Amino acid sequence: MSATGAGGGASQPLPYDPAYETPEPDEAETTAALVETMRGIAETTYQDEGVPLRSVHAKSHGLLRGRLQVLEGLPAALAQGLFARPAEYPVVLRFSTNPGDLLDDSISVPRGLAVKVVGVEGARLPGSESAREQDFVLVNAPVFAAPTAKAFLGSARLLAKTTDTPQGLKKAVSAVLRTAEAALEAVGGQSATLTQMGGHPNTHPLGDSYFSATPFLYGRCMAKFAVVPVAPSLLALRDRKVSVSGRPDALREEILAHFAAQGAEWELRVQLCTDLAAMPIEDPSVEWPEAMSPYVTVARISAGAQPSWSEARSRAVDLGMAFSPWQGLAAHRPLGAVNRARRPAYRMSSAFRAERSGCPMHHPRSADELPI
Ligand code: HEM
Question: If you count DSSP H runs as helices and E runs as strands, how many of each does the chain have, helices first?
Answer without folding.
Answer: 8, 9
